[in-house]
Amino acid sequence: MNWAGRKVLVTGSRGFVGQHLKRHLERVGADVVELQRPAQDLTQPETLKGCCDGVYAVIHAAGSAHVNHINAEQVKAVNVSGTANILAQARQSGVKKFVLVSSILADPAYDTPRSSYGQSKADAEALVIEACRAAATGSATAMSAAIARPANVYGPGMRGNLLTLLRLIQKRRLPPLPRLKSRLSLVGVDDLCLALVAMAATTPSLDNTARPSTDVPIYPVTDGQPYRLKEIELGIRQACRQEIPKWSVPVPVCYVSALLAEVLGRLLPWKNVPGLRTWRTMTRDQPVDDSITRRELSYNPRSNFYDALPSIIAHQQASDGRHSPSDATQRK
Asked: Name one Pfam family in it (predicted).
């Protein structure tokens, strides 16, 4: 579609995915609108009045990111109440398309035992589905929606477990991981953005005709490659020009370490500590099937984690340099 002159509201435009998404939308000619923080707050509905006026599509990328031992009340306020609030504004202003950036963890099959983060994303999805069904009842031009369920996202500026793994290897604080057979899926941030733009461009009349008009399509998003954690570790070590260890930590030792980290993470004020949930993720075979996304959106991912590593490391090193104490002292 021709994006020229069309306004697209991107929530979370200052976040990891949001910054890249804004760049992709501007490249195709869209007029990107952002929430003006802190004046406009997703958790404060009175501050959002009029934010969707004249907007063609909303891509809701804002959310409380997944971390271990996350504050359940905070994540519910942002991911669930925040979604409800921006949905209300979108419907009131006659927005044509609403795209929710959810997570593969919204699917319980990839989030066992259930986390507050995964549940919040599932609850947000339910709100979008219900809003579209209610709107479709009385209007031929009702707002349509799509839900993206990305796997773990990598790219320059990434956060979470992948960044933690990278930093530990860079500091030579990570022993050689065990050789597990379990597979996982990832997605590059640029591929995710291409998929999100495609979801926003798909009008109700072009949506899959085999699907009832009141249904909201859910699209898993990956880069199409199955990864193993040991291969990721070795890829990072090679990118960091480190010698490849000739041994690996035995599986039982790795489990005990994760258990200890879990205990310490609960006792000490540490953030994003890899504990038992990380261990379960490491050992559970959970590749994601994104065939529906490829088929309906003509989605064809272009990147893989290993090719993206040089740019990820360069961005991370530059970011660390900008925030180092020595740099701060020199600027004064």
From this structure: Epimerase
